[in-house]
Amino acid sequence: MEWSFQTAGQLVGALRAGAVTSVELTDEAIARIERDDEVINAICVRDFDRARAAAHRADQARARGEDRPLLGVPVTVKECYDVAGLPTTWGMPPHRDHLPAEDAVQVSRLKDAGAVLLGKTNVPLGLQDIQTFNDIYGTTTNPWDRSRTPGGSSGGSAAALASGFGALSIGSDLAGSLRTPAHFCGVYAHKPTVGLAATRGMVAPSDPVLPTDLDLAVVGPMARSARDLTLLLDVMAGPDPLTSGKAHRVALPPARHERLRDFRVLVLDDHPLLPTGSAVREGVHRVAAALVEAGARVERHSPLLPDLTEAATLYMLLLISGSVARFPIESYEQLQARAAGLSADDQSLDAVRQRALVCSHRDWIEATNRREIHRHGWRRLFAEFDAVVCPITPTPAFPHDHDPNPLERRIDVDGVEHPYFDQLVWAGLATMPGLPATAVPAGCSPEGLPVGVQLIGPMFEDRTPLRLAELLERRTGGFRAPR
Q1: Is 78 tagged catalytic?
Q2: Which of 81, 190, 276, 379 has the fewest CB atoms within 10 Å, counting from its CB?
Q3: Which listed residue (4, 22, 108, 153) is catalytic?
Q4: What is the pLDDT, as a whole number, of residue 482?
Q5: Which CATH code of 3.90.1300.10, 2.70.98.10, 3.40.250.10, 3.40.50.2300 fits the domain covering 8-246?
Q6: Is 476 helix (H, G, I), strand (E, B) or coil?
Q7: 332-340 vs 349-356: helix axis angle to the nearest 10?
Q8: Is 177 a catalytic residue?
Q9: Closest Cα to residue 54, out of 134, 137, 135, 114?
Q10: Cβ atoms of 124 and 91 closer than 8 Å
């Protein structure tokens, strides 16, 4: 039997039943990577010798009667996570020889759960792109169409899952970096509530490894099934043991409902700042139709929805100002002059990005205060609804575009070009207020490319969108595109 495309839950069941060993699963995964990854280029750092040793130890532990959530299951991790003895570069050539001495918190949690680490997956330079390529490891291609990107910045992880390279992966999400690759590659991902899962050790190689709280970014699970997302999130969730983990443990509330017909869902497919492409719009409609057919309450409009234009503006300001602070730029005075030259009437997202490059601390505090108002608005909305269904990006996977100036790139939405980074507005809808969002497959485009949507849920009620995803998968088969 071929195991490579089985879910993690199915592999755990087979391992417990003695139908397969971890060594057999690991050898099959390694053989598939060695056969297929030359053209996909998802696994940028291989760790096969240690993986085989870990699989052997997992089989020995199971033979002694031990059982852990992921005991013996082959997995991958995004390159940006520290793994002792493996390079962590974030795709930045000056750090190609950086070898951390300790595992990231999430890598330790994976190992403690019994997972077998096959290697690390490719990322864009500094994790700062919606594609996945860098000068150290090259370009990762989309397994469905190698002329297209798998997304970013967790594109290597999504491509690995779509190719059968391990059953699970862990990534990170600041600008849709979990959700967009899942959407482009036809797999599942979950962006947890901000602060739910510890991030220490998921840090640029130029920075110290500290237990700091991140403003927008989260770490989260990726998988080939919705149920597997919950399995992996339960391993990942929890505060850092160096900080609030000393006093607190996570006990996520159960999902609000256990049946599709009990869910109250708001469906969105239009954004005031960017059109939604026809393929993605059809994906949203397929999910909405499945919900209606199951008896769920589905609405298309609500006066409780926070203003989408202001939400996108706030998100761009917080995203760009934070990214610039982490990765300093040159010619600051020129940027200040350019921002000062903008018309006060210019409120386009491009103008917002230019102003954000020189955002003052006062401006950032003001934006943070406005974010709290949006969070309160979401609390009111989620008193009436259980989830929001909406796009992740306006299009399926787009062709590779390696223009060295990302601000000059364009995204084609049904034949009309728009600024490249405008496509982040849908991802930012959940990221700016810190809400959980689950990316699920929603069929395919006429060209056969995967299409996904996101299910946004209430803060710290991550099991609600995850359960909705699981129930939709069970009812529809996951809207799988033909392989």
Answers
A1: yes
A2: 379
A3: 153
A4: 45
A5: 3.90.1300.10
A6: helix
A7: 140
A8: yes
A9: 114
A10: yes
